[in-house]
């Protein structure tokens, strides 16, 4: 499953089949369906990445509590990590 199509609606928001979400640009493994959960956001929500280097993060200066996230291999933009906004206390949401 490729991640992420930002325009025209997110086709994987309500998709909960077992599998791996990969970067749409380079195919690098980003998230497992095991870390995916239902969220009110229009994008799929995950609690963790597959590999420690699946994503690169940098501060988002105009959004406190959020980090800008890109593919750890090719740098393609993926969205944000929202700190302490996961399904459990202290978890983040990608």
From TrEMBL:
InterPro entries: Met_Sox_Rdtase_MsrB_dom, MsrB_Met_sulfoxide_reductase, Mss4-like_sf. Residues 1-94 form the MsrB domain. GO terms for molecular function: actin binding; L-methionine-(R)-S-oxide reductase activity; peptide-methionine (R)-S-oxide reductase activity; zinc ion binding. It is found in: Cytoplasm, Cytoskeleton; Nucleus. It holds the Pfam family SelR. One of its GO terms (biological process) is actin filament polymerization. GO terms for cellular component: actin cytoskeleton; cytoplasm; nucleus. Keywords: Cytoplasm, Cytoskeleton, Immunity, Innate immunity, Metal-binding, Nucleus, Oxidoreductase, Selenocysteine, Zinc. Its cofactor is Zn(2+). Its EC number is 1.8.4.12, 1.8.4.14. It catalyses: [thioredoxin]-disulfide + L-methionine + H2O = L-methionine (R)-S-oxide + [thioredoxin]-dithiol; L-methionyl-[protein] + [thioredoxin]-disulfide + H2O = L-methionyl-(R)-S-oxide-[protein] + [thioredoxin]-dithiol. SUPFAM superfamilies: Mss4-like. Its main location: cytoplasm. It comes from the Eukaryota. Belongs to the MsrB Met sulfoxide reductase family. Methionine-sulfoxide reductase that specifically reduces methionine (R)-sulfoxide back to methionine. While in many cases, methionine oxidation is the result of random oxidation following oxidative stress, methionine oxidation is also a post-translational modification that takes place on specific residue. Acts as a regulator of actin assembly by reducing methionine (R)-sulfoxide mediated by MICALs (MICAL1, MICAL2 or MICAL3) on actin, thereby promoting filament repolymerization. Plays a role in innate immunity by reducing oxidized actin, leading to actin repolymerization in macrophages. This is Methionine-R-sulfoxide reductase B1. It comes from Catagonus wagneri.
């Amino acid at each position: 499953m490729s991640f992420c199509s930002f325009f025209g609606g997110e086709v994987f928001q309500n998709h909960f089949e077992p599998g791996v979400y990969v970067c749409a640009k380079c195919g690098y493994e980003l998230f497992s369906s095991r870390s995916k959960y239902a969220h009110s956001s229009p994008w799929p929500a995950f609690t963790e990445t597959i590999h420690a280097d699946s994503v690169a993060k940098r501060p988002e200066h105009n959004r406190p509590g959020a980090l800008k996230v890109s593919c750890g291999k090719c740098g393609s933009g993926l969205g944000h990590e929202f700190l302490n906004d996961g399904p459990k206390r202290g978890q983040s949401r990608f």
